[in-house]
Design brief:
Elements (H helix, E strand, L loop, with lengths): L1 E7 L3 H25 L10 H29 L3 H5 L3 H16 L20 H26 L5 H6 L3 H26 L7 H8 L1 E7 L11 H9 L1
Antiparallel strand pairs: 1-2
Length: 232
């Protein structure tokens, strides 16, 4: 027999970071659009206002990323477990998950990945988040810092190909993040209900279907009891 069970998978620090980072990146994308195409986009009024807001959001996202890295490396000690896919996940897990997203989900089949506190992301998410968090986001932060301090870092900028190369690279990275945002929001609607994953990033609880003969996950207490522990 199977039954529904609430599993606590996202601690409060991670949820706070997620929304702070999300709003920061959205602000960067929107202000960057006005900076890149000022003749066609005028959302924040003056061009300088868009630049100031863009730079402020860049600092917020940079600090947020540093806090995320510190948390998973030194507090949760789970960076590799949560974000680095195993060999088996690379061989078959990615294709199994892609098959679900592109076909079996629309046929009403269950998700092949079952979320637990220690195994939160499916193989496709692991590969994607690994690239986003450990490759693309550091590159965006680095290139953005160079653009904020062109004069003091002039020698390094010339070594990397000059201002045009840097601006083009930063823009292409921003396009990747913009595409990721749309895909991320769409995939977040593929839960038990269209809003279940959004709710999980708000209160930390994920609804899972489990077998009665399997032991309950470590963090599958009643929501009120587990939330009380989280607050304490």
């Amino acid at each position: 027999m199977k039954h529904k069970e609430m599993v606590y998978v996202t601690p409060m620090p991670v949820r706070i970071w997620h929304w702070l980072n999300a709003f920061g990146i959205i602000t960067l994308c929107v202000t960057g659009l006005q900076i890149r195409f000022p003749d066609y986009v005028n959302i924040f009024g003056a061009y300088r206002a868009a630049i100031r807001l863009h730079n402020t959001a860049g600092v917020v996202v940079s600090i947020s990323y540093l806090l995320w890295l510190i948390y998973y490396l030194f507090v949760a000690h789970s960076l590799i477990k949560q974000y680095v896919p195993t060999l088996d996940e690379l061989k078959s897990g990615i294709f199994r998950q892609a098959y679900f997203y592109f076909l079996t989900y629309f046929l009403g089949k269950p998700n092949p990945h079952h979320t637990t506190p220690d195994h939160k992301f499916n193989p496709m998410q692991k590969v994607t988040y690994l690239m986003i968090m450990l490759v693309l986001l550091p590159l965006v932060i680095f290139s953005g810092a160079l653009l904020m301090y062109v004069a003091p870092l002039r020698e390094l900028l010339l070594l990397l190909g000059g201002i045009k190369t840097l601006v083009g690279t930063h823009f292409l990275l921003a396009c990747c993040f913009t595409a990721f945002l749309f895909i991320h929001i769409y995939l977040a609607t593929l839960g038990h209900t269209p809003l279940s994953h959004f709710k999980q990033m708000w209160d930390g609880w994920e609804e899972e279907t489990v077998d009665d003969d399997k032991p309950a996950p470590e963090n599958s207490q009643q929501p009120t009891e587990r939330l009380r522990e989280d607050i304490v």
